[in-house]
Structure of Leucine-rich repeat and death domain-containing protein 1:
Amino acid sequence: MEILSFVHLEDLSLDDNQLRAIPAGIQSLSKIKNLGLSGNQFSTFPTAVCELLLLEKLYLGQDQGMKLHSLPQTITQLTKLKELYLDNNNLVGLPNSIGKMQRLQVLDLHNNKLKALPKTIGCLTGLKKLYLQTNNLSSLPVDFSNLRNLGILTLTENPMTAPPLEVCEQGAEAVVRYLKEKICRGANCLKIQAWWRGTMVRKKLGPFKEPGTTKSGKDSKDKDKDKTHKGKDKRTPNKKNA
């Protein structure tokens, strides 16, 4: 294909061309930084794209093309990628290895079928814009709280419960704050549990109680002895001689 002769090409737009496959040998265009593949007829993700290691922007939104259902693990080879557009597909999940794409600043996943996000999304600390509206998300992983640079977050039209929808509507800062507070509450709860367990061990209470001890911690034999002593202490008053 003639386009492959442009070995110094940095921008390539193949959007809305009804392509069923990307041109064979596209890997030879190793200097491409911006690639548009939206609105085509790919039945699966075109994995040859993952060999364009200098890629910074990738457009694979499919509002008019065939919907993608999954992403290959090899997409995380694109470690220089800054903007990834995967809107209007049928994605139900993301690869766990997505956390390796740490240069990502924009991730557009709106109008998919995502049910959950991997906790590794918390590794994308450079993320500034995340579009998640119109999916099937009900919760976010607590690691999401690591996204300290996130400025834009859209979660409308999701059945959100954690964080609740009223928090999500307040934007990225409110969501991150909510999740950080959740982590703190969990840490405090663990501290209390550890303290209570330690108390029970020291006082030999509950499951740590020694066989034969009462609720008060006294040995049952000692208790019987106490009863015996108490019985001996009781004296019948002597009758006075008439």
Helices lie at 165-168, 172-203, 220-233.
